[in-house]
Amino acid sequence: MRYIEFKITVDREMLETAEAVLLEHGYDSMQIDDPSDVQEILDHKDLYKYDYINEELSTDLTRKPTITLYFTDDEEGLRHLADTEALLAGMDGVCCEASPAGDDSEWLYKWQEHFKPAKVGERIVVKPGWEDYDPSEGELVIEMDPGMAFGSGLHETTSMCVKALEKYMPEDARVLDVGTGTGILAMAAVLLGAENALGIDIDEEAVRVATENIRKNDLEGSIAVMKGDLMSGVDYSADVIVANLMADLVMMLSPAAAEQLGPGGIYITSGILDVKEDAVKGAIEAAGFDIIEVLADGEWRAITAVKRQGKQ
Fold first, then answer.
1. From CA 93, how far away is CA 55, in angstroms rounded?
2. Which domains are present in the chain?
3. Model-level pTM?
4. CA nearest neighbour of 271 among 205, 195, 179
């Protein structure tokens, strides 16, 4: 099968924003070349204890960062590519270029070799369809094949949301997954004991992918998926809202989440960069929540909050 390489060149200050936008729309398998990472390693040999760095990586440290995605060279892949170009078209400091990547069948096989079953919480395990996995006692398995546009669901922000669901979701809860992407959080919630879940996403392709993943895991009787813009027009009474989005969208969503949840309702958010943590916490608290835990994984944060008693 042939593939198209889609290279996104960004101004340094726009890299985190572009990455967050792509993550929000389900693109969690991407190649990132950030020369500042190389410079950081070069400047701190005592910390990173490296013996060798490829010369190609350190030749031009003034180059702009790039994000690379791959799409299949067929009707479906071209549709994904057009959607991604449209998604990034209005962003300042972002330049996109698509080019043929050739026949990568051997590369694809090698890539599959490296995607193994992975634990994303204490109990949830994600595995590709081509791998056998014998779960240990208490483990819950989600089967999900990573695609070229939509990834495996193994990003740090997803893992932290799963951990928060494991810890704070009440038994038999009704769970609203805002920005469902691959549907992994809705599926994790139901496997962990939620009565049912509703996933919503602004992207039609995400709705299709999530629906297919839910069917593949025989969970269509417990999970519905719909297209929607945050929570606008959503008629669903939830005990838990989980939103793996990006900081600005989490802040926008928080007042609506507070209106939808009753006192004691759980609000789990992620996709938040460390530099935005304080601003997001302030917005969540101002909406009527008390923050009960902040999880950290590298530069990413996940915030769990509970609807304040007496707030209607």
1. 27
2. 2-110 (3.30.70.1150), 118-307 (3.40.50.150)
3. 0.68
4. 179
